Amino acid sequence: MDTSKLSAPSDFPPPESAPTSRITLLTMFRLGLFQLGLGMMSVLALGVLNRVMIGNLAIPATLAAGAIAMHQFVAPARVVFGHMSDSKPFWGFHRTGYVWLGTALFAVTLFLTVQVIWQVGAAVPGSPAYIFWLAMLAIAFACYGMALSASSTPYAALLVDVSDESNRSKLVGVVWSMLMVGIVVGAILISLLLKRLSLETPLPVLQAAINRVFIIVPAVVVGLSVLATVGIEKTYSLYNSRSSVSDREDKITLRRALRVLTASPQTGLFFVFLLVMTLSLFMQDAVLEPYGAKVFGMEFSKTTLLNAFWGTGTLIGISTAGFLVVPRLGKQTTAKVGCLLVAACFILMILAGFTANQGILKGSVFLFGLSSGITTTGALSLMLDLTAAETAGTFIGAWGLAQTLARALATLAGGGVLDLGTRLFTSPVLSYGLVFAVQAVGMVIAVWLLSRVNVPEFQTTAKQAIDSVLANELD
After folding, report:
1. CA-to-CA separations, 63 to 69, 73, 109, 128, in angstroms, rounded
2. Distance of CA 455 to CAs 36, 264, 267, 307, 407, Å?
3. Do the beta carbons of residue 48 and residue 191 sit within 8 Å?
């Protein structure tokens, strides 16, 4: 099907003089290689290290999870790195140099983090050395998060620079689909490299195997990052033609960029929408597999497969929405429809609990993934629109901050609501159902917030704020 012929209701009319993006579908897939690499790294950071710390080294789960979460709690750095990429070209480019440097740093930092983990495992629990290395582990994950922000925020700003209204949803569909592909590819590759390891594996053998994986996979990711972005900014970026300050020596400072960021009430509305939507979308992360075990009597291997149903649905939802749904409905409507579908899926998952039918649960999880993909594509496409060319990196940093903080809080909130449900109800269906019900309500609230977002008003207010900054403060 020739998707280039699809026309969409525009969320706002582009100016007649707006430069036009020239990126092709092949270029979109090439840009997606960076996201594919991030998917592989997420398996390393969140899957392998979590398993090693809790399973092999017997580090308490709370301490292990708390250390890993540090890479999300440094999310405010995204705003700073986004602004730096707007105002201070690095290696001759606004985005590419930061992407490459950040990728190299998070690859090296993650390897060093593994070495700190071995030191935690070797120390006596409760001893001063143990406490010291735990603190170093938290710092190491924080540094990993900083490096991740330094690469992923300018990368997302690059997506804004090279795209326009006509192809942005397709670009989002491609690159975020490749993130899901990266998770699958990473899981397969890592499972092959670590297939002979178990809980009984001697520590020296385990260390050698894990260290090897944390050299091979990050090296592949660095290569993918370079391949994804080399020459892209020089050939396709519209930053200089869109920005009114790109050729000025007195770039907008961070303080003034934040003034532009906060000039429109629409910015705050969309920030809260992203926070509520993301929080509501991921609260079930910590409870879905236990729900399958307690209510449906599923074995460990079968509850793990629930992630495959969710991932497959999400991949189909993202790719379908990017090429078929958003071009027809528009970004804002797609996000609203997706949120309502997600809310319906949570209700379906509660009802499935009363049947104790594993097939219904699997189908519900698949539909949840499908709806999540539609929601994500609509919201991310709209997010890339809600930027000002002169401060695109700063805006992307703010949106990334909302999403990352929400992901960090979602797991805590899911566990907290489940504990509350356990105290209130004796039935596991009702206890877990309370989590899904809260998520459904959150999605309805997200729709209400999104209904109040006015893209044309945002564009007008942001332009006025930039003009004011340039006229009054950059003399």
Report:
1. 10, 15, 20, 15
2. 30, 10, 10, 35, 25
3. no
Dihedral pair phi/psi, residue 44, rounded to 5° = -65, -55
Specify whether the CB–CB gap between 264 and 131 falls below 8 A: no
Residue type at 399 in one-letter notation: W
Token pair belonging to 82: 């986004």
Q: pTM for the full model?
A: 0.76
For residues 417 and 434, what is the distance between their CA atoms, to the nearest angstrom? 7
Ramachandran angles phi, psi of 445, nearest 5° = -60, -40
Q: With left for phi above 0 and alpha for psi between -120 and 50, is residue 10 left, alpha or beta? A: beta
- Which tops the pLDDT comparison, 17 or 56? 56
Residue 381 is which amino acid? S
Q: Look at residues 187, 207, 257 and name the one whose alpha carbon lies nearest to residue 40.
A: 187
What are the two backbone dihedrals, phi and then psi, of residue 8, each rounded to the nearest 5 degrees?
-125, 150
Q: Tokens 């990017």 identify what position?
A: 322
Residue 285 burial by Cβ neighbours in a 10 Å radius (0-12, 13-18, 19+): middle
The DSSP element (H or E) to which 370 belongs, if any, is helix 358-385
CA Rg, the chain, in Å? 23
User: Structural domains in the chain?
Assistant: 26-242 (1.20.1250.20), 247-475 (1.20.1250.20)
- Which residue bears the tokens 């942005």? 168
Average pLDDT of every residue of the chain:
83
On the question of pLDDT at 259 being above 60, the answer is yes
At 153-191, the pLDDT tens digits run 999 889 988 988 778 888 988 998 898 888 878 877 877
Cβ-based neighbour number of residue 216 at 10 Å: 13
Beta-ladder partners of 93: 90
Closest CA to 23 of 175, 222, 240: 175
Residue carrying the six token digits 């917030």: 449
Share of the chain above pLDDT 70, in %: 85
Q: Which two tokens stand for residue 420?
A: 């509350």
Per mean pLDDT, which of 4-13, 321-330, 405-414 is the most reliable? 321-330
Beta bridge partners of 90: 93
| For residues 44-53, average pLDDT | 79
The answer to whether residues 393 and 77 touch, using CB atoms and an 8 Å cutoff, is no
Rounded to an integer, what distance in angstroms lies between the CA atom of residue 415 and that of residue 293? 16
User: How many other β-carbons are positioned within 10 Å of the β-carbon of residue 43?
Assistant: 21
Those residues with Cβ within 8 angstroms of residue 223's Cβ, 6 or more apart along the chain or in another chain = none
Can you tell me the distance from the alpha carbon of 80 to that of 400, in angstroms, rounded to the nearest whole number?
12
How far apart are alpha carbons 113 and 471 in whole angstroms?
A: 47
Positive or negative torsion for Cα 339, 345, 351, 356: negative
Q: Residue 94 — pLDDT band, cuts 50, 70, 90? A: confident
Cα-Cα-Cα-Cα torsion 268, 274, 275, 278, nearest 10 degrees, comes to 180
